[in-house]
Amino acid sequence: RQLRTVLVWLFLFFLVFFWTIPTSFVSSLIALDNLRKLVPFLVDKYPSFVRLFIKGFLSSIALWLFYLILPWLVRLLTTLEGVRSKSEVDELVLGRLFVFKAVNQFLFLSLAGSALNKLREMIDAPKEIPDFLATTLPSQSTFFISLIMLYALPFYSLELLQLFPLILWPFAKCSQRTPREEKESWRPSSLPYDQMYSDHLLMFMVGLSYSVLAPLISPFVVMYFGFGCVVWTYQVLCVYIPTHSTGGKLWPVIFNRLVFQCHCTL
């Protein structure tokens, strides 16, 4: 099992850094300026609100779609590692998803869009790196505002509608052979605590980091957690059926990362 643990961590290490290649490619491909070069006859005919949507939200949607398969992949790797209990799997998946999103989805996107534009200047004058970051990082707040709005509005709407289970249910029904299996296909799944809390930790990190650099992001973070409190309370009480209990093991994982984020911000 120790060998499998090392192999899984090595795979996750490479995944953190190489995952940026397809996401960056797709995000840059659907950017408005690049679309104008590829299909100018279509982009020029778009009305103004469509161009604003492409510029503001389409890259965030593409990034969100790429990260949809991430929790499933990390859970599969954790299961192949040899972890037996579901509560331990949830605990490990939550910690690994947080590391992945903190490095790949927060640090890389912040630095790639701001610091890399002035990489030559920072190499020539390393003492002025804090000043460069202070002037360039706030420009990335617009992307994170779009990402927060995507999570707070369309994502929570899809969560309430349960659209993905509704789409997948006919395919699951075709594979059921007995009445008991068909009845089980109607049973709601358990709440994905690892995915939910990793998203919350990411938004908390974004809000805590950019609240000083770009205070405009703070109301959107409050909106995200306000909507989330209502949506997830309803989903926990009325929709999802728990299949196992972690016994409170997720709380130390979440609390330690919240304190770590506060220390990093200070």
From TrEMBL:
Pfam families for the chain: RSN1_7TM
The CSC1/OSCA1-like 7TM region domain, residue ranges: 4-262
GO molecular function term, any single one: calcium-activated cation channel activity
Membrane spanning residue stretches: 6-32, 52-73, 132-154, 223-241
Cellular component GO terms held in the UniProt record: membrane
Official protein name in the record: CSC1/OSCA1-like 7TM region domain-containing protein
Keywords recorded for this protein, A-Z: Membrane, Transmembrane, Transmembrane helix
Keyword Acyltransferase tagged: no
